Structures are given as structure tokens and as C-alpha cells.
């Protein structure tokens, strides 16, 4: 049996005065740490109220999931196994070493002075303890080395060059310095700890049980091999003891002011992340007390919620949102990472104790044009706060967002970029900073209930050519209420697909109806463009119309409509079961109500709409349909929840995109054209059909790829006769970008 001699002296060679000095330094470092954490907490406390807790059961479930995800590094490893594996090595190495230090503290400061009979730091415990700490400490150093190599290569996601300002006019060096300082400090902690262990083993002449400290044993042997004796190792051990202790305590003090704060903020932020982040935006009345001057949205720092302030502190600058963002890929002046970091630096600067110690504040000029032009602080700010919307974050930057949710989906630490961007867009609308195209769309939507400037009475004109009339759900009970949507009702290219949906539904014997002129735009993109008042008018009108209809379920071809009906209308009294038409088609094909007459013997690729795959998490149904009709599906490199945006969402389809380096839709078509043998580009969204029909021509791939709606392939498979209408003049991506905007 292992005896009490299988252990080590805890303060070996340290005098009483040395121990006192050590504990004074511990107290000082701890005090600075607590002050720093306290400042962070006071910063969050100044944020506006936001209920992200929900019911205790729901929050407990989310907290449990975030704990498991953090422990297993799931969010970090998603689509980046390299980062996931080595981040896990660093994280768990650090955690285990911290636990090891805590165990030493309990043994030396509590057990031995107060209850020595319960001393446990010896024998088998000591051997297992030593082995675990050595192995995990080594894993941490391996992880640090791997991450350092990756950072030195500077992949795209770790390039901090701004997309909105010329690199020469902004200094991002502080970010790189902070990253290397954090990584280097951990490395020095690990290396000095192992060197201390090695010199201790050598100074004690290789106690046999220290072989279970394998890294220290190898270091001791290496020192011995180069001629270092136990006697000469002792002063080195003593110096290393103090060096390692001081480095560790300074790290503790610097912790809340450095990148290390993410280790505390991230698990909390993941637990607080709303499962409906971006899907269900807050109504104005629930966003907290309105500002004294009555402004709307996120204009100043004081308008940010406490959750948004934790968001900005959680950012690790991993760049996943940056590389996923279609605005970045298109050359637009928006990077979700830069937006979050700009807000963090501004919020830190508002707290003097954080500003000097936190990562270097960007000298991004506070300009509304994104080119460094200074703007006044704006009306109503006597507290010296700078303007966020249209100031620190330029209007051009905010209007570049497609609200595709790629940033939120990619973020490993639960940051909710889209709600913050929409909040600032609300402020832009409140300030009157709206592009002409967007303003025209708003005006048409307010007057006619659609962005095309067409009379609301013409909404169901597309039904005129149908052989069988569609039931008016306001007058007759139906099983399915089909909420058609603007593009499906008014866009000439999409109308034929809309008629095919009706004919396929009728051929399957579905009991369905529509609201005819009672329907107005569901308002999803209106809301994400920041016009909350107009959105509420549209939502309240539609809820009123739906309440007069008699139906069981809603079906829509438009993923944007699907999102707001399903996730946001409950806030306005409309709680419905909502299906995408691909889900209905899959069910009809599976049940046999819809019978395939011939196989679609073509090699196709399928584009996942952002609002279907990311927002509503519907990815299987369209693929099930394609499989059922016999199509040969070849997946896009970016598919499912990792899909790429067409560029139309968030009101972008109503805005000019001629200044972009290359439109997202054109990039997507080039991606599809590179797939061997693919002849059909299949969509399942009216806006996608519009955007990609234009993009395939703009890129010159119209001879290679046919852009089709999913329903067109289904109609062919069930042997419905139809013709795709000729080009209506929307033959370029620039035309598609302004489709749906009423004539000026």
C-alpha cells in the first residue's frame, strides 16, 4: 500500500515570509479580478431589459444543453474539426489545471491547518492527480501550438482587415496583439509549470513515484543528461516557483480585461441564446421602457439590452460569421464580426476602467457614410454617447445585411447579430435614413399591401387562367389555407409556378383555399428592414382576415412568409400550424395522394433558401420530394443550414445592389455551374426563383443551367402540362434586385 511519503511538499523551500508575500499577491490579484468582473456586470446591468430567461423549465433545458455543448466543444467543432479538437485540448487542459490548483489550495489552506487527519494529497490520490494533470497540461500545450500555427497562417476568418474602411485608415493591430497575448500567456503558464515540475523532480533526486508525472520526469531527465545536478537544480526550481506563481497571478488579474473573459461569458451567452433568435423579433412594446425622447430602435449604447452587451463581450473574433456572411463575400461594407467588435470597443470605452486595458479600440471614424466622415452625436444625447445607428455603424453597413441568419447559425458562442442589426435599422427608419428604393417599397406596402404597387384587388388575378377555381377561404371551410405571398402573386415569372402549385394541390384532392384580396404582405422583410410600425399594421390586418376564415392549417410557398406566420404572428394573436409547400408535397407523394407518372431523369442541384433551411430548419422535405420524383440530386458544397444566401432577404431585394463586387445570387450560380453534369438549379422560394433566373443570365450560364421551382419538376413528374413563360424583361441581376418595387 502506498504511504504518506508518496507526496510532495507544497511550499518547498519557501520561507514563512515568502508564503505571506504569496498570499498578499493572491489577494491583490483576486481583488483586481473581482473588480474587473464587477465592472463587466455593471456594464450589463445598464442594458435595457430583455426577457431571455422564459419559463424556468425552458431555461433549465437550455442551460443544460449549453453546458453539454460547451463541455463537448460542439459549437466550436461544428464545420471546423481542427478548431474543435484543439480548442477542446486547450479548454480542458486549462480547466483541469485550474481544478488541480484548487485541490492544492484546499489541501494546504483548509485541510492541513484545520483537519490534518483528513489529508488526502498523498499515496494513490497523488499518483493519479499527477498523471492526469501532466497529460492534460501536455494536451493544452499541444492545442496552443496547433492554434498558434493556424493563427500564424492567418486564414481568411482570422484576417481582421475591415471591409468598410480602407486598411490604412484603421488600426486592428490591438486585436492581433490581444489574441497572441492570451495564447502566449497560456503557453508560458504551461511551460513554466512543467519546467518547475522537472527541476523539482531533479532536485529531489528522482523519487520513484514521480514517474507518474511523465512530462516532468522527461524534463528532469533531460536536465540531468546535460549535466545539471540535484544541487544546482534547486535554485532554478526556487526561481521557477516564484516565476510561475507571479505569471499565474498576473494572468488572474488581467483575466476580466482580456480575451480570456470569453471563458466566462460564452457558456452564459450560450445558455441565454434564444432558440428563436432572429426568427422572432421583439415587438416595440416588449423591448423595455421607451427612451425619454421617444426614439425607436437601437440608436445609442443605452438602447442595447443586457443580452446584447453580453453578446459583444462573448465574441472571440473567430471569424465564422465573417466568412459565412454574403455581404462580406459580395464586397458590401458589412462584416458581422466588425459590427460586434465596434460595439464592444465603444461600450468598453464608456467605462474608463475597461478602456485602457481592453483590446485596442479601433479608430474607425464615426461617420454615416462609411468613409470616415464625422457626424454629430445627434439629437437628444446630453450624456455624451455617440450615435450607433448611422454613426459608429454606418447606414450603408446596416442596409447591407440580408438577415439570412448565417452569422447567428455559424457563431459558436451564441451571439445574436440579426436582432441587433434590425434594432439599429429601426433607428435608421426613425431617423429617416432610408434609400429611395426601400422608401418606395414601404409606400406601396402601406397603400396597397404589396411591394409591387399593384392594386390589392389584383392579388388573385393569377388564378384567372386556372381550369378549376380556388375556394375563397373567407366564405367556405377548408382544411388548408394557402397564404400565397407577394412574389408568388405578382411576379410574372413566379406566377406560373404559383398556378402549378394550385393545379398540383387540386390534382391531389387537397381541400384548400386562399384569402384573395383579403391577403396582404405577411411583412417578414418589412420588419427586418426596420419598419416595425408598418409590419404591425400588415400583421394585424392579416390576423384579422385569418380570424374570419375557417381552416385547420396554413401552407405557403414563401419561406419568408412561413417564418413570420409561424414564429412572429403569435405575438399579434395569430397562432397557427404553418407548413412549407415542400412539406405538403412530400406528404402527398408519400401517402399516394400525389402519384408520380414518370421519373425526372435529370441531374439537379437544390438551393436551400435561408428562410427555409436556417429559419424554419426545413431541409429534408425538398430532398424527399426530389427523391420521390426520381431526380438525381447533387448537393451544393454549401447546403442545408450552411446554405448561401441569394441576397434578397431583409429588404435587400428592394435596394440597389449595383455597387457590389458580385451579387450573392451570381456567386451561387457559379458554385452550381461547377458541379459536374448538373443541368437544373432547383429553388423552393419565390424570391429565389426571381433572383436566380436573373443571375443565371447575368453569369452566362443560362445555356448550362435551367433555374426551376421545385413545383415545376413535380408537375412534370405527375404529368401536368405547362409552359414556363418567356422572359418578362427581368433579364439581369440588376433588374431582379429592384423587382417588387413600385414604379417611381
What does this structure look like?
This protein folds into three domains: about 100 residues, no CATH class; about 140 residues, Fumarate Reductase Iron-sulfur Protein, Chain B, domain 2 (Orthogonal Bundle); about 300 residues, no CATH class. The protein has a five-stranded parallel sheet with strand order 1-3-2-4-5. With about 750 residues, the chain is mostly helical. It contains 29 helices and nine strands.
List the helices and strands and how they pair.
Elements: H1 16-45, H2 56-72, H3 74-77, H4 81-114, H5 123-153, H6 173-203, H7 214-225, H8 230-254, H9 262-272, H10 306-314, H11 320-324, H12 326-330, H13 336-349, H14 395-399, H15 406-410, H16 417-431, H17 436-448, E1 471-472, E2 480-482, H18 486-490, H19 492-507, E3 512-514, H20 524-528, H21 532-548, E4 553-556, H22 559-568, E5 578-580, H23 581-591, E6 603-606, H24 610-615, H25 620-628, E7 632-633, H26 664-673, E8 680-683, H27 686-698, E9 706-709, H28 710-717, H29 733-737
Parallel strand pairs: 1-3, 2-3, 2-4, 4-5, 6-7, 6-8, 8-9
Helix pairs in contact: 1-8, 2-9, 4-5, 5-6, 6-7, 6-8, 9-10, 10-13, 19-28, 23-25, 26-27
